[in-house]
Structures are given as C-alpha cells and as structure tokens.
Amino acid sequence: MSETMKRPDPNHPLLPLARAYTNYFTPTVSGLENLPASGPALVIGNHSSIYWAPEVWITFMSMMERRPDEPSFGVAHEILLRAPLLGDSLRDFGVIAASQEAASAGLKDGGAVMVYPGGDWEACRPWTDRGKIDFAGRKGFIRLAMKLGVPVIPAVANGGHDSIFVLSRGERTAKLLQLDKLVRAKVFPYTVGLPFGVAPILPQIPLPAHVSVSFLPALDWSTEVGDPEDTVLVDAAYEQTVGTMQAELDRLRAETPNPVLTGLKKHAEGLPGPLSALAGLL
Length: 282
Hints:
single chain, 282 residues, alpha/beta, 11 helices, 10 strands, 37% helix, 15% strand
C-alpha cells in the first residue's frame, strides 16, 4: 500500500472526537450489510450542511465498522489536506485528495472509497433544497467505476442540511472573488443563524438535527461491464443513480419530516430522571 494510501488508524485520537461530534446528531444507520465486507467498492453520498457535514463522518465510521480488516478511504478538498496539523491528522485517518487519481489508487488497493459527487455545490445548496439530490451533472464517479469494474454503493443521508439555514450558494460572490481559480470553488455561501446572524461562509452553530444514513444495494449499472467512453451509457447510469438516491431521500424525509424536532426529542430521551419527560412534549 502506497504512502498516501494509509489505512485509518483505529486508535487515532480523532476517532473519539468524531464519535462525540456525530452523537450530537443522534445518528442512525441502516443497510450497512449492502456494503461489501471486503474488496473494492465506491461509496457515493449526498453532501450537506457546508463544513459541518455530519453525514461524512457517520458514513465513514460505518464503513470502518463494516470493514475492520479492510482499508476504507474518504476524500476531502485539498484545502483541508494542506492545513497545518489537520491535514496530517486527516491523512492518518484515511482521508485522501478529492481526485480521480487518488480515488483510483484507493480502489486498486482493494479499499472502499467514499466520495461526494455534488461536492461543495451540493453541500452549499439553499435550505429550501434540502430534500434534493444535486450532483450538478458530475459523472466522473461513473466513469471511474466503469473503468475499474467496481460496485457503486449509494449512502443516502437525511437531516444534515436541516441543521444549517443556507440562504444562497453565493455563486456571484464566488465568481467576483475568482474562487474557482484560487481554490477550485464556485460557491461562497450565505447563511443565517447563531452567533453571526446573516453572514457569508462563517460557521454558524448547527441545530441538533437527527441524521439518518441508508446504504443501498450496489447499483445495477455498476455490476455489469461498462464503457466509460460511452456517453449514452454514462448518462443513463447518472440518471439511474440520481433517481435511485432521490427516491431513498424522499423515503427518509417522509419517515423523519422534521429532523431537528426528532433530534431534540432523542436528546431529551437521554436526559436523567424527570427531565426525560421533555421528550413527550416534542
């Protein structure tokens, strides 16, 4: 295994911090048996809540739990990997650059690689679009899976985007600041919340929304031989992928229509003694 393809350290000090962080969002995970216990697999998810992104940590730690003796990798923007101390810590935890080359290397090492095709575009979508899968037409993950012949496992998440009120992606501001050239970003999100009120990009305190992650069976198109240069085939696979994940997100939202209230109720149920009665009021 190459130096850049480090297996996550199960004793890494970041792991208990990640667990404590995700517990704030009272997570539930279903369908984990759909993720192969060994061998390469491409896990694709829908991205939410800008920088907080609890679904990323919940999904990744579930992958580690399912595959304790097999490598699991997650991708991240180069900005995070270049950050002092944080970058090295993330690499030790199994985080690799968000690129075709790094993802391909992880899959060839027999790993399960977690990617979010929608990237910052989806993570910064307006709050009113929180129930929508938005990959912005990005199909690189399909070509990668077809090229390497690996199964694609959707990991659909609900609730994370309810925790932050995103007013706008701020595309015009991003263009004005030339962020695409500087940091490969087309967004400069505006949010409303505490403690900054209405503000651009600053980290507002997230609400304790309940986050659920559902692992689905491997997509049909990824279990058959495909030509990554066949535009018609790639387009059809993209439509099937987004349609399948949207249907599951719709189901999760119907099951938990108000993730914030559900999260508050779950936290109240964990309170001692008479305080747990608060759960019945929510």
